[in-house]
Amino acid sequence: MIDDSIQRATVQQLYSQAQAAFTLLRELKAEPRKETLDVSESRVVATRAALKTAQDELDKQRASYGLNPKTVSRDALDGAANAVTTAKANLDVAIKQRDLTKAGAWIYDIDNQERQYNATYKSYLSASALLSKYTLRAPRDGIALAVSPTVGSFVSTQGVYDSYTQGMAPVLVLGSAEEHLNVRCYVDEILVPRLPDPSTIKAQMSVRGSTVKIKLDFVRLQPTLSPKIELSDQRLEQVDVKVLPVIFRLEKPTNLRLYPGQLVDVFIGQ
């Protein structure tokens, strides 16, 4: 595992934001709320009652003014008429506000909130996918041949710095647990024309410092040539010669111990 404390906190934050956006989306879709609608209905009833009160007062003053104009002043009559007009306007506003509440959330607000939720949720999924890469998992069962970094080492997408080769090395090197090994041969381009037909290739491997000869089985060859690389396996160390990779397989011998990465000599014939 690579230290994932910052990325894990980021995932949790985006998850909370996505949940908040989803809750708001549900709230918009659930409108109108019954309690809010009840308040709007009560406001309509109250303003309708206020209009009736203002209208009754105006009718009384008009009746009194009709019997005796001296009993009611002109200003009081005009004030009662203005009160009725104001009450009618208040009732109209209350009715429209109730209808607006009853209609629920605007479809454009719902669409906008749904898009915000989807965007936030996808950001959460992206952050979760990146978090999963902080744990290195082998695609199959095998043997860990090498672990390059130590606890606390800096690891990047290019791997870990190798002080021996002064380049980037893989974080982990996994090997197969099977009973055979593969040998990769690099044939100089000058010798490529002398290679036998793949169906008739025979090869023999010798290990430096040993007299043991091991028969090899042809597997495949890479159909393209690549620049020759020095033993440090650094892609910057290239020479003019190109080579053709040829892959062989061998059964692990019982009288000789072999290790992945070991340098051997291979003779190829027919």
Can you walk through the features of this model?
With 270 residues, the chain is an alpha+beta fold. Helix content is 43%, strand content 23%. It has 3 domains: 5-130, no CATH class; 136-177, no CATH class; 179-269, Elongation Factor Tu (Ef-tu), domain 3 (Beta Barrel). It contains 4 helices and 10 strands. Strands 5, 6, 7, 8, 9 and 10 form a 6-stranded antiparallel beta sheet that branches. α1 packs antiparallel against α4 (107-132) and α2 runs antiparallel to α3 (74-103). It is rod-shaped and about 140 Å long. The mean pLDDT is 88.
Short description:
With 270 residues, this protein is α+β, with helices and mostly antiparallel strands.
How many whole angstroms does the radius of gyration measure? 43 Å
Main sheet specs: 6 strands, antiparallel
Give me the number of helical elements: 4
Order of helices and strands: HHHHEEEEEEEEEE
What's the overall geometry?
A: rod-shaped
Q: Please state the structural category.
A: alpha+beta
Secondary structure tally: strands: 10
Portion of residues within helices: 40-55%
Number of structurally distinct domains: 3
List keywords for this structure.
270 residues; alpha+beta; Elongation Factor Tu (Ef-tu), domain 3; 3 domains; 6-stranded antiparallel sheet; two-stranded antiparallel sheet; 4 helices; 10 strands; 43% helix; 23% strand; rod-shaped
